[in-house]
Amino acid sequence: MPRLFFGLEIPEAIKTSLLQIKTQVAGARWQSRGQLHLTLAFLGQVEDQQVAVARDLARGVTQSAFELNVQGLGCFGSPEKPKILWAGVSPENELRELQKNLATALTDNGFTLENPSFKPHITLSRFRHPAGSVASLLESHQGTLFGLMPVQDFVLYKSTPGPGGSVYTVTERFTLQP
C-alpha cells in the first residue's frame, strides 16, 4: 500500500533560500531539498484500488491559479522547545480554498485525512528531544521574503521511508485553471 499525500512543489530558487536557514540547533533534523513541499492533504497508507479514486477526485478540483509569498518563520511548540520549524506563506485565502475543495472531495468519498486541521506552512526542520531554542531564528527571519511562488498546479506525492528521511516522488500533477 502506497503512502500518499497531495501538496505543492516549491520552486528551486525558494528552496535555495529556505535551505540557507539551516544552522546548528540541538535536536534539529533539517529537511533536504527534495523534502521541501507544502502539504494540502495527507492520506497516509492507501489501498491500491483507492489510488485511482483519489486521483479522479483531485482531477475534479477546479480553481484558478494564484501566487503565494513564502515569508517569515514560525514553529509548532514553543520557540524554546520546538517540534517543527516552518516557513510561512501568504495570502492564505486561495490556498485555503484549494485545500478545502480537495479535502472535501476526498472526505466526502470515504478518505480519512491524517491532517484534518490545515495550517499552511513549509516544514524546514523536525526536532528530537531535547530540542534547542529557535527563538533567535524566528526573530532574525520574522519578515524575510524567501520568494514569490506561483501556484499553477498541485501534485500527488508518494512517500517512501528511507535512511535519510522520507523520499517524496511526484506521481501525478493536477493543473489549476489559468
UniProtKB/TrEMBL annotation:
<comment type="function">
    <text>Hydrolyzes RNA 2',3'-cyclic phosphodiester to an RNA 2'-phosphomonoester.</text>
</comment>
<feature type="active site" description="Proton acceptor">
    <location>
        <position position="121"/>
    </location>
</feature>
<feature type="short sequence motif" description="HXTX 1">
    <location>
        <begin position="37"/>
        <end position="40"/>
    </location>
</feature>
<feature type="active site" description="Proton donor">
    <location>
        <position position="37"/>
    </location>
</feature>
<feature type="short sequence motif" description="HXTX 2">
    <location>
        <begin position="121"/>
        <end position="124"/>
    </location>
</feature>
<comment type="similarity">
    <text>Belongs to the 2H phosphoesterase superfamily. ThpR family.</text>
</comment>
<dbReference type="InterPro" id="IPR009097">
    <property type="entry name" value="Cyclic_Pdiesterase"/>
</dbReference>
<keyword id="KW-0378">Hydrolase</keyword>
<dbReference type="InterPro" id="IPR004175">
    <property type="entry name" value="RNA_CPDase"/>
</dbReference>
<protein>
    <recommendedName>
        <fullName>RNA 2',3'-cyclic phosphodiesterase</fullName>
        <ecNumber>3.1.4.58</ecNumber>
    </recommendedName>
</protein>
<dbReference type="Pfam" id="PF13563">
    <property type="entry name" value="2_5_RNA_ligase2"/>
</dbReference>
